[in-house]
Write a structure and sequence with these properties.
One of its GO terms (molecular function) is metal ion binding. The chain is of the alpha/beta class. It has 4 helices and 4 strands, in the order E-H-E-H-E-H-E-H. It has one domain: Rossmann fold (3-Layer(aba) Sandwich), CATH 3.40.50. Helix 1 (18-27) packs across helix 4 (113-130).
Length: 142
């Protein structure tokens, strides 16, 4: 019997909103999949496209960027910058054979631990259905 595929998700989370929501989920004992590897960023606008490409090239099956809701960014427009970058990067990733559903940008407020939990579960389930990333064959993230 074969082992069920467990995707690896690299999550770049804004310190002020989504990371705080993930922390809230943890302190509230709301479990989310352990295959979500969190990287704390000061702002979603500071996620360089190279970070995303490197994550996929080093074995991630999905990349999640979490930021503040538009209008709530501590750096005024960092989340809007992230949205523009994600739109462009999604098109570039398609050229490498990486499907759009492997790369998510979501707004999660600091008080939305439940929302973070739900997005983590939804993305994990979606990636289980899709299977391994075309770039992650024989590569893993520790």
């Amino acid at each position: 019997m074969s082992k069920e595929f467990e995707p690896t998700i690299v999550a770049f989370l804004c310190n002020w909103c989504t990371f705080t929501a993930a922390d809230l989920a943890g302190t509230s004992r709301l479990s989310y999949p352990e295959n979500v590897k969190i990287i704390r960023m000061m702002c979603s606008g500071m996620v360089d496209p190279l970070y995303v490409l490197k994550a996929f090239m080093e074995g991630a099956d999905g990349v999640f960027i979490g930021g503040c809701w538009p209008g709530d960014c501590h750096y005024i427009n960092g989340n809007l910058k992230a949205r523009r970058r994600v739109a462009l990067l999604t098109e570039i990733l398609k050229q490498f054979g990486i499907e759009e559903d492997r790369f998510w940008l979501r707004w999660v407020a600091a008080s939305d631990g439940v929302m973070f939990q739900e997005f983590s579960k939804q993305m994990t389930e979606k990636l289980r259905q899709m299977g391994p990333s075309p770039l992650s064959v024989n590569q893993t993230i520790a």
